Amino acid sequence: KVLIDVPCSELAEELGQSQTKTQVLQDTLQQVLDRREEERQSRQVLELYLQALKNEDTILSKAAESEAVPREEMDVVDTGTSSTDAAAKTALNDHILTALKEKPAPELCLDSRDLELVLKEDVQALALALRWDVQKAEALQQACDQELSKRLQQVQALHSLRSTSKGKKSLP
């Protein structure tokens, strides 16, 4: 990079070469740097693709698991009785509230369905259930929204890659 940034005339003088040869050398170095950057970006795209595949497999296995064994939390019915426990005033089940309270980055620990539940929850009720202030609950909802958006982008990227790869397979 340093050799590319040096003016051609100065580099030619220092190397004892003609400016033409020095310019060819700088062009070649720039091409090498460009190729390395393209390779780095390609690796990043492949890593995202593999991560999206892994996430999709995880989501599919969790979906199959939840269909096979219904969660106990889903069987709980709100009877409308009032309770002094703040957690009873939210639609969130115990495992979500526990994760929100105890995990440093709970949005990374919850599945997409749970993230959607957190986002749908009223901020006041969420803050009350977690015994937090409203700003902290809002920040949590924003983090959950960002994580859900990121997951959606990964799924969209996966679908895009799949449709691209399917198109290439059908070519002769």
From TrEMBL:
Gene3D superfamilies xrefs: C-terminal domain of DFF45/ICAD (DFF-C domain) (1.10.1490.10)
Domain DNA fragmentation factor 45kDa middle: 2-118
InterPro entries: DFF-C (IPR027296), DNA_fragmentation_mid_dom (IPR015121)
Taxonomy, superkingdom: Eukaryota
Name under which the protein is recorded: DFFA factor
Organism: Centropus unirufus
